[in-house]
Amino acid sequence: MTTIRQLVRKLRDEERGSITPFFVVFVPALILIVGLVVDGAGKIQANENAQAIASGASRAAANAVAAQVVSNGGVSLDNTRASIAANDYIAASGMTGTVSVAGGRITVNVETSYSTKFVSIIGINTLPAEATATAEIITQ
After folding, report:
1. Sequence-distant (≥ 6) Cβ neighbours of residue 86 within 8 angstroms
2. Three-state secondary structure string covering the chain
3. What is the pLDDT along the chain (140 residues), one digit of tens a residue?
């Protein structure tokens, strides 16, 4: 019996620390995978927010000039008024963007960024997000 106990003790001592290489390799890989999932979802959400702001800004610009278009009966937009309404909407959201008005179309491009939580460990601190929306004045 004594020899079996000694043999078991010897085997246990030889395997001591063998789990360390497993943790050294797989824990950072697991953290990176979790980070990609979390930060990827954050970027998708930032893109959705940018799309919502772009759509809202184009509608705000269209609403700002819609009464004028209806009263005139034609499609002659006040470009300045439309641009101001859209830029105010974008500024209120904390994002940046551009507005272009041509004919009866108002196009808004919004840009923002997502501050990463996990992948900043590997040097990626922000991920860009942008969206474009167009509103069209229809008179009939």
Report:
1. 57, 58, 60, 61, 97, 99, 106, 108
2. CHHHHHHHHHHHHHCCCCCHHHHHHHHHHHHHHHHHHHHHHHHHHHHHHHHHHHHHHHHHHHHHHHHHHHHHCCCCCCHHHHHHHHHHHHHHHCCEEEEEEECCEEEEEEEEEEECCCHHHHCCCEEEEEEEEEEECCCC
3. 567 777 666 666 555 566 777 788 888 888 889 888 999 999 999 999 999 999 999 999 988 887 665 555 555 667 888 899 999 999 999 999 999 988 778 999 999 999 999 888 888 899 999 999 999 877 66
